[in-house]
Structure formats: structure tokens, C-alpha cells
Amino acid sequence: MAARAKSGPLTVDGIEVDVTPESFDDIDVVEAIADGNDPAADENAQNAALFRLFRALFGPDYQRIKRELRAKNGGRLTTAQMAEFFNHLLEAVGAKN
């Protein structure tokens, strides 16, 4: 699942990410979470908010993370696989309620 070295990046499902609980204290991250949880938003708007969240949280590492996840999953990355990775990340940083 996930492990953090004493110093350095967090490793989630074998992929290094630089995310801490403090990473969630960012206006773009908070807005994307709020937009994704808006009950008035349709599915397309919620999906768009999720992708904004990933970009805001992972920054320049987003493409690398997708590439590594895709490679681990036989060249294809499904939304379910990305969601599973994200849930493991939330658990690892203690951000999941």
C-alpha cells in the first residue's frame, strides 16, 4: 500500500508522490474538492473537478504518476485504478475521514 521514509517522498502502491497533509491546505485543492462534492453538479462537472484536484495536488508529477500507474496496469489506466490509488494516498497521508 503506502510507506513514508523518514525523509523524502511518500510511496503509494510503489509510486513516489510528494504529498503531505499540508498539501490539502491549498485553495485550488479545496475548491476542486468542494466542486467535486457539490450535489448540484452533474457527473461531468464532478469528473472535471476530480481532474483539477489531481493536477493541483500532484503538480508537475501528475503526468509521471499517470504514466507509472498505466505501466503497472498493463498499459491502461482506468478511472477505478486511479481512484484506488488516490484512496490509498488519502489513507497514507491521514487525510481520509
Short description:
The chain has 97 residues and is mainly alpha-helical. It is 54% helix and 9% strand.
Outline the secondary-structure elements.
Blueprint: E1 2-4, E2 10-12, E3 15-17, H1 27-36, H2 43-58, H3 62-72, H4 79-93
Antiparallel strand pairs: 1-2, 2-3
Helix pairs in contact: 1-2
What is the total tally of β strands? 3
Our measurement of the CA-to-CA distance between the termini, rounded to an integer number of angstroms, reads 18 Å
Structural class computed from helices and strand pairing: mainly alpha
What is the helical fraction, as a range of percent?
A: 40-55%
Report on this model:
A hairpin with a 5-residue loop joins strand 1 and strand 2 (10-12). This protein has 4 helices and 3 strands; from the N terminus they run βββαααα. It has 97 residues and is mainly alpha-helical.
Quick tags:
97 residues; mainly alpha; three-stranded antiparallel β-sheet; globular
